[in-house]
Amino acid sequence: MSQNISIPSTSLSSRNKIHPQKFMLWMGIGSICMMFAGLTSAYIVKRNQGNWLEFNIPVYFWYSTLVIMLSSITIQFAVKAFKERAMQKYKALVTITAILGIVFSYLQWVGFSFLNNHGIQLIGRGSNPAASFLFVIMLLHIAHVIGGVMALLIIFFKAFSSKIKTYSSISIELAATYWHFVDLLWIYLLIFFYLIK
Amino acid sequence: MSNEVLHAHAEALTVHGDHHEHHHQETFISKYVFSQDHKMIAKQFLITGMVWAVLGGLMSVLFRLQLGYPDAHFTWLEDILGKWWVKDGRITPEAYYALVTTHGTVLVFFVLTAGLSGTFANFLIPLQIGARDMASPFMNMLSYWFFFTASIVMISSMFVETGPFSGGWTAYPPLSALGSASPGSKTGMDLWLIAMALFVVSSLLGGLNYIATVLNMRTKGMSMTRLPLTIWALFFTAVLGVLSFPVLFSGFILLIFDRNFGTSFYLSDIYVNGVGALQNEGGSAILFQHLFWFLGHPEVYIILLPAMGMVSEILSTNARKPIFGYMAMVGSMFAIAVLAFLVWAHHMFVTGLNPFLGSVFVLLTLLIAVPSAIKVFNWLTTLWKGNIRFTPGMLFAIGFVSLFISGGLTGIYLGNSALDIHLHDTYFVIAHFHIVMGVASMFGMFAGIYHWFPKMYGRYLNNTMAYIHFWITLVGAYLIFWPMHYEGLAGMPRRYYDYSTWESFKQFADLNKFISIVAMIVFATQILFLFNFFYSIFKGRIVTKQNPWNSNTLEWTAPIRPGHGNWPGEIPEVHRWAYDYGKDGKEFIPQTTPVGAEESQH
């Protein structure tokens, strides 16, 4: 019984509403925003209580910003390529985007070790909450980027599957929206850490 | 009194739902275990929640034994529970704190969040808005299984050598952050955090689904202002959960780092007996309280709103009157949902909060009295001059209103930062939140179970057992928690192990014993309910009427035992709101009835 019901089509065909999965993604984004809002507010609250270590963010984080912005562009082209059914181009762009996501995460990690090597201990005994906050918040952001990479990988293998041909652009659109979101989230975090230290 | 409504409806349909279903290969696994049918998932949530309610209730009975009989020796308990829990016939102090903590966590999150909104959001949203299932049945299934896994992890923490977490359900650091500070903060706390993280994931998956379903999948004609109030309530509940659980999660992440990776978010200048001074510097334990209560306060409305919604629906149906002030009900729920995010610091009046800031939070807190009073007024005016049918569901709904009033009034005391200096962390607080949030929401849940059981299982619950259950539970709830107000006003602090050695509170020995006895009686009565529930699933009187309560909402237009997809043919179209009771001389007009030309104001 459960398989024969195509849920979205029954109630959506009649009305021109936002796709439920897209809608759910937007709410999920809202939910993720609340988590980071909680963390950055905690950062401000803690900072105002004193015993706070001030330091400049390493240049690697600016490089990673460039990388993630570039990946936002490539995924947008991937969506375009999919809609034009230019599948070779599409596959290449998805691959590049996923690789850029991994490069981004790697650069973040390089930034962390740079801080650690220059006397700013991120975690462990004797670490200051200022650095720990930066580490935890960015780590969570990286986790969200990796989540996006996973989603891209799934889409990537779907695109190579010869058995099933998909003409619905919904999954790549969802991935693109999410990808832009983690991009914007990072830019927010960068500005936040740049201005409030 | 019969369950069927006396005036039988002309369209009383015989059981005919089943032959519409297409019997695809549905294995036991796909039907009962990894089901994607919202109705089955609802039942899974309900029964898991009931298992938790029994465990959590049993824990309260155990610590009430200690509080009521501090000098007694129950050696037989030692044989049942083992030496860690009971030594020399007495609950050990470690076990006592573990029981209090786990009771709180389990009842707040596993029973009254997952068990209540998990059950009824899943069951009622698609059926009452006219959808075949949730927006994403798969996510819905995941939501349950995350909850189930969280449950397993939480249960397993009862069996570790150092015992379950025992720092109170709020898990305040530094105690919760330092394994060296207390045995309960070792492995038990790790498992507690894992369980809670899984629980947050489950709540988010569920909540996203509920919102998407309500906003996107309503049937034709079901505008937002025609939604039954249950759906509005469940919708606001989901919004609160989606916005507040991530903040709790971020608090937990920082706690995990403090526990396991040596950071100092919450820790500063600490000396642990036997360990010495800790190196952690610069942290602030209050920070956790901010993050925790930013969830924690919306959480009490996550618990309460579904009960409010179901009570509104059940009161209107069984008073045979339209709900009084539908838009005011929706508006007040919206106001509660907004204010829920603006009052968290009233849990922190005595943490050294700036008194000016405190006064702002007092104002915002007391503002909640306005929408709450609107709701109470509307419930009472719905009952007023109604043609009331005292079904078990209706009794529990009325009981909810009673408890909400008595528990809500004490909130006005506690919301005041000056009075809070005396009242905080006393039994007054315990009495307040148990009545207004705990028992009231339990009553909402019982009301919902009694009212929708025929829809869930196609059978009726036994009424005699239901009435016994209701009266003992209602009287018992007041007898348990009313005296606690006096103890709290006298300054008796919560969470203590033994008051008999304390000169100021020795006088309450008999009162404590009385509370404990009533608690045991009430717990035994819940066993009666459980028997009724499981017996009736298999042996209850079979429902033969499609609409046994003569109710207007859509779920009663589905077959008596709906298959996956809910309606065999087309989804019914909606032409009116859900509360046309006693209109134009008609006893009730279902939402599917088109508006007639001769109808008075529509």
Explain what this protein looks like in three dimensions:
- The complex is a heterodimer of chains A (197) and B (602).
- Chain A has 197 residues and is mostly helical.
- Chain A has helices spanning 7-12, 20-48, 60-83, 87-117, 129-160, 170-195.
- Chain A has one domain (21-195): Four Helix Bundle (Hemerythrin (Met), subunit A), CATH 1.20.120.80.
- Chain A starts with 6 loop residues before the first helix and ends with a helix.
- Chain B has one domain: Up-down Bundle (Cytochrome C Oxidase, Chain A), CATH 1.20.210.
- Chain B has helices at residues 28-33, 38-68, 75-81, 93-129, 137-156, 187-216, 229-260, 285-319, 326-339, 355-367, 369-383, 392-414, 417-423, 427-457, 463-489, 509-539; strands spanning 86-87, 90-91, 271-272, 276-277, 581-583, 586-588.
- In chain B, the strands form 3 sheets. A two-stranded antiparallel sheet of chain B has the order 1-2.
Distance between termini of chain A? Answer: 58 Å
Give the mean pLDDT of chain A: 87
Low-pLDDT residue spans of chain A: 1-15
SSE class of chain A: mainly alpha
Question: Over all CA atoms, what is the radius of gyration of chain B?
Answer: 24 Å
- Low-pLDDT stretches of chain B are 1-22
- Give the name of the CATH architecture of chain A: Up-down Bundle
Principal-axes shape call of chain B: globular
The level of helicity of chain B is: 55-70%
What's the overall geometry of chain A? elongated
Alpha-carbon Rg of chain A, integer: 20 Å
Question: What is the secondary structure topology, with strand pairs?
Answer:
The complex is a heterodimer of chains A (197) and B (602).
Chain A (H helix, E strand, L loop, with lengths): L6 H6 L7 H29 L11 H24 L3 H31 L11 H32 L9 H26 L2
Helix pairs in contact in A: 2-5, 2-6, 3-4, 3-6, 4-5, 5-6
Chain B lengths: L27 H6 L4 H31 L6 H7 L4 E2 L2 E2 L1 H37 L7 H20 L30 H30 L12 H32 L10 E2 L3 E2 L7 H35 L6 H14 L15 H13 L1 H15 L8 H23 L2 H7 L3 H31 L5 H27 L19 H31 L41 E3 L2 E3 L14
Antiparallel strand pairs in B: 1-2, 3-4, 5-6
Helix pairs in contact in B: 2-4, 2-5, 2-16, 4-5, 4-6, 4-7, 4-8, 4-14, 5-6, 6-7, 7-8, 7-9, 8-12, 8-14, 9-11, 11-12, 12-14, 12-15, 14-15, 15-16
